Amino acid sequence: MIDLALVPVAGWGTRMLPATKSQPKEMLPVGRKPVVQYVVEELVNSGIRQVLFITGQGKSSIENHFDIDAPLITYLRETGREEQLQELQFEREDVEYFYTRQRRQLGLGHAVLCGKAMIGAQPFVVALGDSIIGLNAESDIVSRMTAVFEREKADIVVCFEEVAAEDVVHYGIAKPQGTVGEVFELADLIEKPSVADAPSRLAVAARYVFSPVIFDALAETKPGKGGEIQLTDAIRILLKRGHKGIGVKLADNEQRFDIGNFESYFQAFVEFALADPQYGTALRDHVRKLLG
Length: 292
Ligand code: G1P
Known about the structure:
The chain has helices at 35-45, 60-65, 70-78, 82-86, 108-113, 116-119, 141-152, 213-220, 231-240, 262-274, 280-291; strands at residues 4-8, 29-30, 33-34, 50-55, 96-101, 124-127, 131-133, 156-162, 172-177, 183-191, 202-210, 245-249, 256-258. It has 292 residues and is an alpha/beta fold. Strands 5-4-1-6-11-8-12-10-9 form a 9-stranded mixed β-sheet. Strands 2-3 form a two-stranded antiparallel ribbon. The chain has a two-stranded antiparallel ribbon with strand order 7-13. α8 (213-220) packs across α9 (231-240). Bound molecules: 1-O-phosphono-alpha-D-glucopyranose (G1P). 1-O-phosphono-alpha-D-glucopyranose (G1P) is lined by residues 108, 128, 131, 171-172, 191, 203-206, 230-232, 260.
């Protein structure tokens, strides 16, 4: 049973400046909660009990967010604010948190490699801290992926979402082997190809499961796209050597919300706010009015 997830949150978030100048993009709110809280809640619902954050400079508010804030709890209790107290329930999730810093910004692959000493010889999940899966993170994709990992005796399981042709340039793109169902075999993976070179429109959607052999591949991975050590390139090394890689597709009602750029951040915020049980209906009327 895989119960350990590595969550990289060290990226600078340059595509979201100035919002991310002095706060992590993972702490931007989408509706009521910061992005990274949705990520952790999703992982906990899929059986994860240990979360290792790979953080970096300027990211300490993430650590603060998952602390148990005793003075605040006492204050809310003593002043009878039971409703607000409920909002801190996530602090009590049955999870252990670990934090280590990526001390140099050398890419996503390097960030994952920073977890090697702690993870050792166990299989583990990687969940990117800037992506929410499903409205309000109501997705069990990670438990579906870990089930496939165990059943297929794979070394790599990657989550995919079908994207528009012009969007392949933003993602790792799958070259599937054989027919593509909900679960399919991976022949290759290409980081941010041009539209012409993309072997499919299946884009890596921020969730992975790995056996520890990924660390060997990462240690050998040379800087790739953007001069960074790419997780995609380490996966390629393993696939070329005959290690088994499986793709799992998100369901139609399981959208990935990418909080790495303003376009999809705005869309995510609006969608989550419209679904808010308290304010959604009024917001819908307001937006209708604005749109004339
Ligand atoms: C990373 C990965 C890419 C993946 C994307 C979203 O890119 O390198 O393969 O498709 O996350 O999961 P980034 O968004 O860090 O540029």
